[in-house]
Amino acid sequence: MMDDTYHGPRRGTANAEQRWLEASSSLAEARLRNREMNCPMFVEGKRDKIALERLGFQGPVEVLNRGWSVDDVLVHLVDTYGARHPIDGGITLYLLMDWDRTGGRIQRTCRRNLESLDVAFDEDVRRTLMRCLKPETVVVEGLLGLAEVLKPLIDQFDYEDSSTG
């Protein structure tokens, strides 16, 4: 029987521990803003949402694939969360599509539309995950299989949440 959980960075990959720490730090920062400032993570599908929840995301996670057009979903997000965060004027949402070819196409479409609506959004988490976790996964839902290893690393950076288990 094969175990489908991931048990850590691949042996022999260059700077594996550093890559995982950088990915965890980026996820911890996003998780904190998601939890504390109600800043949503915007992902492609339900499995992506489940993966983020398994990593400890407690704030809103919005899903693109809900039977609506991309434009309708984006307008809904702007109506719900605004173009700028009401507390600090910063980002309103995290744009986190898969880092495969289809995800890249969706990311570009969303970016173009959000920019035209003058919405402050973040793509840095996706860029970091793409650079740091590409040997292990190219999709957000792939984080689900990595959660057992990633969550404790994320908790190290997000001190408040590490005490809640």
Brief sketch in words of this structure:
With 165 residues, this protein is of the alpha/beta class.
Give a description of the structure.
This protein has about 160 residues and is an alpha/beta fold. It has one domain: Dna Topoisomerase Vi A Subunit, Chain: A, domain 2 (3-Layer(aba) Sandwich). The protein has a four-stranded parallel sheet with strand order 2-1-3-4, with helices on both faces. It is globular, with a radius of gyration of 16 Å. The N terminus is likely disordered.
Strands in their spatial order, largest beta sheet = 2-1-3-4
CATH class: Alpha Beta
Structural domain tally: 1
SSE order in H/E notation? HEHEHEHEHHH
Rg from Cα = 16 Å
Tally the helices: what do you get? Answer: 7
| Number of extended strands | 4
CATH topology: Dna Topoisomerase Vi A Subunit, Chain: A, domain 2
Average pLDDT, all residues: 90
Structural class: alpha/beta
Molecular shape: globular
Set down the secondary structure blueprint:
Layout: H1 16-36, E1 41-43, H2 46-54, E2 61-63, H3 70-81, E3 93-95, H4 101-116, E4 121-122, H5 124-133, H6 143-157, H7 159-162
Parallel strand pairs: 1-2, 1-3, 3-4
Key descriptive features of the protein:
single chain; about 160 residues; alpha/beta; Dna Topoisomerase Vi A Subunit, Chain: A, domain 2; four-stranded parallel β-sheet; 7 helices; disordered N terminus
